[in-house]
Amino acid sequence: MSYNRATAGSGSRTTGRSFEYGRTHVVRPKGKHQATIVWLHGLGDNGSSWSQLLENLPLPNIKWICPTAPSRPVAIFGGFPCTAWFDVGELSEDGPDDIEGLDASAAHVANLLSTEPNDIKVGVGGFSMGAATALYSATCCAQGKYGNGNRYTIDLSVVIGLSGWLPCARSLRNNIEGSHEAARRAASLPLLLCHGKGDDVVQYTHGEKSATVLSSTGFRNLTFRTYNGLGHYTVPQEMDEVCSWLTLCLNLEGSRS
Known about the structure:
Blueprint (H helix, E strand, L loop, with lengths): L24 E3 L7 E6 L6 H9 L6 E5 L4 E3 L7 E3 L15 H16 L6 E7 L1 H15 L14 E5 L6 H9 L2 H9 L2 E6 L7 H13 L5 E6 L8 H14 L8
Parallel strand pairs: 2-3, 2-6, 6-7, 7-8, 8-9
Antiparallel strand pairs: 1-3, 4-5
Helix pairs in contact: 2-3, 3-5
């Protein structure tokens, strides 16, 4: 299947609801621009906090795009509104899936990447709910379509999920195994999942199960890293792992010391 980055904007019409996204923060590359990664924050957060962390990583060849999710009623908070990439009743792969919200956020990511030059590698990553959205984008990329059947046209080079889980895990196997092209794309897409064993928000078992489901459905280029004692936050050791993995996978020219 051929990908045409210029047509990725069609994904913005994948849903019936209208979502008002917040401010997008961009961290420009300090060296030669080789890759662009959209980074998605967690539930109730915004793009600004992660842009400040990402700006200080020794990855001068990466442009980071840090959007802010829409504010919407969230079931896990009894319908109280906060910034969220989709509605969620529990932070695990066992809850009901908000396909419409997931499709809208995956399309928003695709739209942000669609204007990047064709010689620039693109990816998506995130933390917690942002990680869940990134992993959902990975499954859309492999299948070549969103959950509603509309075409997904971005050719992702890397996907990162920190302290997250895999939405729509129950239906993934049939969707991937039913298509030779989907299986081929799944096998070639590099994924990095990291999870703390002390996470009391998104339980470690959910991250572990998500990695197992992805591996068993054909995402063979998957790395799963665990951290003893780490809760629902990130630490320098984890971000060092992200930097090393991205440098290798994207064949970056070098990192800033």
